[in-house]
Amino acid sequence: MTVRKKDNLRKKPELHADVKAKVDSQKWFYTDEVKEHFFKPKNFMDEKTSKTYKASGIGLVGSPACGDMMKVWIKINPKTERIIDMKWSTFGCASALASTSMLSVMVTEKKGMPIEDALKIKPQDIVARLGSLPARKFHCSVLGDKALRAAINDYFRKTGQTKRIITEGARVIDKATGITDKDIEEAVLEGADTLEKLQQKLKVGIGNPACLPEVEQLLRFYKEKYSG
């Protein structure tokens, strides 16, 4: 009887050349910069800590029910209008985490980015700082800059600068406050599930009660959309 050597029993089967090529290519799927921001995210904040964080503005985009969701908190120096701090939290993939982590660095470095410059940031700018993202993950970089702009709009609203609010593909519902359908959607996602809660959060309809029927209609629509 022939006895097989122990080493032969432990020897792993060779991978087919095509399979091996695909496995090896995974090493280059994300850049080192993406990996750094994914494994060691900068300026991340959990929900518990956020309760005591005094933000100048808060932005929320997406929904956990639909997939990725991004929430951003910013602090702005009212004298210089520079973003001196940005915190964030997200439900999402490695690309979403890395993109928002990098964004938080971009807007707070060099003593803080002016608001007007921050509003001009594009997903391509974030991807460039990360050294690229896979094409099918590019959309993940969009969440961060949208959430940042939502947070800046929130700052404008809180400081009475409604004329500076930028509406992106949104419809203004309350012309007195500049509140859009997107603002109402985001407020519902944050838990404003009654008209009273909406008004406490957004002041919508308080100075312009004529818009309240449409506000209530949108409230019902978004509650049904996200809560069933």
Write a structural description.
The protein is of the alpha+beta class. It has two domains: 135 residues, Sufe protein. Chain: A (Alpha-Beta Complex), CATH 3.90.1010; 62 residues, Orthogonal Bundle (Arc Repressor Mutant, subunit A), CATH 1.10.10.1100. It contains eleven helices and six strands. Helix 3 packs across helix 5, helix 5 packs across helix 7 and helix 5 crosses helix 8. The longest helix is centred in the middle third of the chain and has 19 residues. About 11% of the residues have low confidence.
Give a short synopsis of this structure.
By secondary structure, the protein is an alpha+beta fold. It has helices at residues 6-10, 17-25, 32-39, 47-50, 94-108, 115-118, 123-130, 140-158, 181-189, 195-202, 212-227, and strands at residues 57-62, 69-77, 82-91, 113-114, 172-174, 179-180.
